[in-house]
Amino acid sequence: xxxxxxxxxxxxxxxxxxxxxxxxxxxxxxxxxxxxxxxxxxxxxxxxxxxxxxxxxxxxxxxxxxxxxxxxxxxxxxxxxxxxxxxxxxxxxxxxxxxxxxxxxxxxxxxxxxxxxxxxxxxxxxxxxxxxxxxxxxxxxxxxxxxxxxxxxxxxxxxxxxxxxxxxxxx
Length: 171
Fold this sequence. Notes:
By secondary structure, the chain is mainly beta. It has strands at residues 2-4, 11-14, 19-22, 36-45, 48-52, 57-69, 77-85, 88-99, 104-110, 124-128, 141-146, 155-169. The strands form 3 sheets. Strands 1, 4, 6, 9, 10 and 12 form a 6-stranded mixed β-sheet that branches. Strand 2 and strand 3 (19-22) form a beta hairpin.
């Protein structure tokens, strides 16, 4: 069970300034909770990488950008991102494009993104991310991986942006 450190605030994301705007003050409500925007990056020589939500935060994943370089090992890679809690897959989102050996593709995952079934401009692939309102609780893990696990020598570089707030846990 989790207890929020402060009451929830009513906010709306403003992409022009890349931050959340408080709607509560315009409604005469007190401003008590703060969401912040952060960026992260994870690189691995493998067919997968993982990011874990810290024990004292909730996240809303805004986007993932993935550069995936396949080595010469023959086989089709198919990227997916998964949400896991305590080892169990609770969300799975599969990209509609397969990547062959010896290529580098740039993937963009975001809420509302079209689901491309073909590569655009030689190396670009777009695919949907979880729903915009999905909150990731503490200790949930976000995996980006080749579901076919073709080669441990592939290189995966994941950049991501997320909104987060600090919470207090009750254990």
